[in-house]
UniProtKB/TrEMBL annotation:
It comes from the Bacteria. This is Sporulation stage II protein D amidase enhancer LytB N-terminal domain-containing protein. One of its GO terms (biological process) is sporulation resulting in formation of a cellular spore. Residues 1-39 are annotated as: Disordered. The lineage of its organism: Bacteria, Bacillati, Bacillota, Clostridia, Lachnospirales. Residues 9-36 have a biased composition (Basic and acidic residues).
Length: 419
């Protein structure tokens, strides 16, 4: 066991890494063993913009050609040839269609789909399900290869190597937990490729992110010998919080998600980042309309907004809104951010730039006061504030912290293990 012991700077028990004793193997033997042992994940690929679960049709191709096999027979596609499959394709015949590449190592391109980097290509195989609404597309592939397209989609490949390694361990742990169940049992799919789970395949694979996955191969975060969901978010305000922000009772099972100060010697790692602090002024009429639309509760013209309960890290847990027609209480960070979110105002970041308001307030780490005909909200950070701050991880890596130290900052008392 390699352990950093107790970190005086954070007052948290440092993460430890369990070193595996491995027999010496040739690189070929080791690669073969890893491929054989790798668990397989099944991912539902949503439509463009991640709006729907099923596609009107699916157009596929591969550089070395494809093999398509279903209950209704088999079909081949030549090198680079695109095959378009409709829901009534004879290959379905009451079953599914498996799509494989002829050439090992090829990817399957889905030209009927668009992602952030353009037309996406996928490792592994596809299984297509014909439904009354269209075609459900399931990408089945080894977990490590799945991570090749998760890490760059969740964290910029330009980030520091140690931050990318930390992200890889988090993403692997999170995926592993979801592989124990099926988000879409009708398709035997563990997850989908959207923000509902982890974004997969929205950015192209990069050498740096592949290297980060390979360097941490198999490594997951465990707490009390159980792999944990390693939640993460964009940017902290110098503090994180615990699961109470989601309305979940703090227990022994989730206490690895403990709030912490993201700092060293009293200096916040992210203090110079644009979203570290922000503010906005929302006119009374605007906030009154948004609150009604977002919550379905008509309190009339709002005269007062109070944060009536706070949690670890000073996050808002409960908000009371009083208006001309009554009052309402909103609980949990997501519902509070949603209640005050929407179009119609600007958010000023600390670097002087502005951002348009969005569906959610940037974070629930904020104060609010009425100033004349507007409500002034001053906050910090971006995201839910639970688990690892991705920008915090990157700033720590810039200061020479390795991924084990980074993970120890955000997850309390966990162990990194590849077993």
């Amino acid at each position: 066991m390699v352990s950093g012991g107790y970190e005086a700077e954070t007052g948290k028990k440092a993460v430890s890494k369990k070193e595996e004793t491995k027999e010496k193997k040739t690189p070929e033997e080791q690669k073969g063993k890893e491929e054989q042992e790798q668990p397989v994940i099944r991912v539902l690929l949503k439509t463009g913009g991640y709006t729907d679960e099923v596609h009107p049709n699916v157009a596929v191709s591969a550089g070395g050609g494809l093999l398509l096999e279903g209950a209704g027979g088999k079909r081949e596609a030549k090198e680079g040839e695109t095959v378009t499959i409709a829901p009534d394709d004879p290959l379905f015949e009451g079953g599914t269609i498996r799509v494989k590449t002829k050439k090992e190592g090829d990817k399957i391109t889905i030209s009927s789909l668009k992602r952030g980097y353009g037309v996406p290509s996928y490792r592994g195989e596809l299984e297509l399900f014909s439904t009354a609404q269209g075609i459900a597309v399931i990408n089945e592939l080894p977990l490590e290869e799945y991570l090749y397209a998760v890490v760059p989609s969740e964290m910029p490949a330009s980030y520091e190597e140690e931050a990318l390694k930390a992200q890889a361990v988090c993403a692997r742990s999170y995926a592993y937990c979801h592989m124990e169940g099926q988000a879409y049992p009708e398709y035997k799919a563990n997850v989908d490729d959207s923000t509902a789970y982890q974004v997969y395949g929205n950015s192209a694979e990069q050498e740096k992110t592949i290297a980060a996955v390979d360097a941490t191969m198999g490594e997951k975060l465990k707490y009390h010998d159980t792999v944990v969901k390693a939640y993460y978010f964009s940017t902290s305000c110098g503090r994180t919080t615990n699961v109470e922000a989601w309305g979940t009772k703090v227990s022994d099972a989730n206490s690895y998600l403990k709030g912490t100060r993201v700092e060293e010697n009293g200096t916040c790692y992210e203090k110079d980042l644009p979203w570290f602090s922000w503010s906005c002024d929302i006119p009374v009429e605007t906030v009154s309309n948004l609150f009604g639309l977002n919550t379905g509760q008509d309190v009339g013209t709002i005269s007062q907004i109070e944060i009536t309960k706070r949690g670890e890290g000073d996050v808002a847990l409960e908000m009371k809104v009083t208006g001309s027609k009554g009052s309402a209480v909103i609980r949990t960070e997501n519902k509070i951010r949603s209640a005050l979110g929407g179009n119609g105002y600007k958010i000023q970041k600390q670097d002087g730039t502005e951002a348009a308001s969005a569906k959610l307030l940037p974070s629930a780490f904020f104060t609010v006061e009425k100033r004349g005909g507007s409500f002034h909200i001053k906050g910090g950070g971006y995201g839910h504030g639970i688990g690892m701050s991705q920008n915090g991880a990157n700033e720590m890596a810039k200061k020479g912290k390795d991924y084990i130290t980074i993970l120890g900052m955000f997850y309390d008392g966990v162990e990194i293990t590849a077993d």
